[in-house]
Amino acid sequence: MTRVPASDYRSLAAFRYEIRKFLAFGEQAARSAGIEPQQHQLLLALRGLPRERRPTIGALAERLCVQHHTAVGLVDKLEQRGLVERRRASNDRREVLVSLTAGGEKLLQRLSAVHKAQLENVGPSMVGALQAIVGKQPQRRAR
Q: Beta strands 84-88 and 96-100: pairing type?
């Protein structure tokens, strides 16, 4: 087993700390905007889906790393608030597609601007913590 130096523990802990601070900021920002953090994450996952992905419940569940029924519940709540809407795919009526409403787009834009500004502030600390971990190249043994 490879021995892990104390400095690696400190680097890993510092990186995790920076991530947790950013996530806590994001959770508070979502709640201040009147939605739950997972609802914000779903809105962002929906808007940020790769072009080749269809905006299905399954795709959103995958992007959020949650079960299908959890994504359904999130979409239900967001739909009730008028932030997303569902429609049946025209070519396969079994497929349900999710889209942002104008209100959902506006809310997501506001939250994304706040998150981007926060990252501009804390980004250097996060990058520094990550570089402390991955910036170390394993030394090659002389042959």
A: antiparallel
